[in-house]
């Protein structure tokens, strides 16, 4: 035990301090009439040494109130100062070391995500002094040279972290990204047939708790999904089985699977649809594959069943029959000899589905006509539910909901660390809840979503674009990165398409640049009569084949029945052998591309583009809220059509009654649109 004494003159001048004894726990001060013990933790800072006229004083910063040890001869003051300072730092280092180790482990996990940042703050909060005690001023610490490197580093780290703010976190994130971009430059150069752009690379490495990559059409969202998967595996942040890629349709999921399989690093990564994910979760939890009702799997089976139930209800329930006939009469829909149940069932099927998904609307909010329609449709929903219960089967909505419940109940252990979602702009509320449940069940899980709010076109089946435009409201701490260079189409198509879609002020603003340029207009409007359409397409195909013998051509329409039939298609394929001609709806062409696009059915009316006479007043009330801009969703769909083309778009407009979109393009100040005929 060491004792440091004040000069013997001290008591003569009424100073109470006589000596200081250093123990393992702290120090014992010998005062004139008493002894006073202090633990090392009572000292909130290293001592200060103050030179007096002849003697020195040591100032002790104590939680209970500061003290002064005076009348110390210089050698005593120096030795005591050195010992107290060193011991104080050693005691602090003993506390700091385990904490700094935990903080380092968090920091070493990579990108300093918000969730990791919060865990850090929690750890650092353990350094807070007890109530009423003074906090250590970490910013002013200067550890002595006698501390070991580890001790000094631990104190240094905690001082940095305690004073760190959001800008510091941002700096760490940027440093991490920079490091990854350098380390994996070769991977990003060689993964695809083309090297990724800087913006695409950055989108791959940013790693917040939830990430949204917002990009225009053709900006390489799919390439980025693939590259991110490869990067996560190559950088050992995840094993292939810890990644899950999600798509909406089977075709997109299997295309992703093929692309993943082509690279050794991602060959073990799974791409699934949301439905396949739901099935997998249910079968894992229940030990057997759930059986899906045929009513869920085929639209035609569902419509047929609804039509039968309508006919049955009319036969068995006179009041229902009268109500239905009355409603149809009001709508001037023919009922002789009996209503067209099948047509009615086809129109009401989406309403039944929406009622199931979103529940019944408040009757008082509906007009008498819509309330009457609702009361006619509700019995169909009940029959549908009853049928599923009878069969002991479920539909897709039940599956997603049950899967979400199982996860929330902790009955499914989440094996993934990263979930990557394609075409995110079309996600529905229930699917977003499923993702949230997965995230909550696995706090280290990071979401990576790629989408384009300009291409949100699935509201009729529950897609809710607000989940994209207000991403952070649903998914919390998030980072949005943008891709603004399109590789698919040229500046001429871009000028038309971007201007067209941004007429709706509620679309997020984006400025796209294009990889290819064209000096002359590439969007052409051709007026055609109903009879002249086939001839016009033949001429166009001939012209395309003459200029470019090997090319792909999409014939796109708003409705399937507006497309040429198979016989006609086969004839064209025989005649223009070098052309790869595909007919499909604009919805089906989403995510795909061709050299040339010919859009058909661009007239007015119920089956025009946009379809003008809405039969879905009730459906509108049930679906997720939409923006108030007229034909907002149809405008986005038209944008999707325009942006499928790499080189040229031909818009075959109804010569008598051109679509309002065509009128806008030809007279709304679009200099890049050329008018033929
Ligand atoms: N860095 C790049 N360099 C050259 N070409 C690229 C690059 N990135 C993507 N592409 C090409 O651009 C085209 C569009 O890519 P992709 O289909 O991934 O776009 P997207 O953003 O998913 O489009 P959309 O939203 O319209 O479906 C593809 O032909 C792709 O190969």
From TrEMBL:
Record bears the keyword Nucleotide-binding: yes
UniProt KW keywords: ATP-binding, Helicase, Hydrolase, Isomerase, Nucleotide-binding
PROSITE patterns, A to Z: UVRD_HELICASE_ATP_BIND
Class of enzymatic activity (EC top level): isomerase
Catalytic activity: ATP + H2O = ADP + phosphate + H(+); Couples ATP hydrolysis with the unwinding of duplex DNA by translocating in the 3'-5' direction
SUPFAM superfamilies: P-loop containing nucleoside triphosphate hydrolases
Alphabetical list of Pfam families matching this protein: UvrD-helicase, UvrD_C
Enzyme Commission (EC) number: 5.6.2.4
Source organism superkingdom: Bacteria
Domain UvrD-like helicase ATP-binding: 194-490
Binding site for ATP: 215-222
Entry's family note: Belongs to the helicase family. UvrD subfamily.
PANTHER family assigned: DNA HELICASE IV, UVRD / RECB / PCRA DNA HELICASE FAMILY MEMBER
UniProt-recorded name of the protein: DNA 3'-5' helicase
Organism: Oceanisphaera pacifica
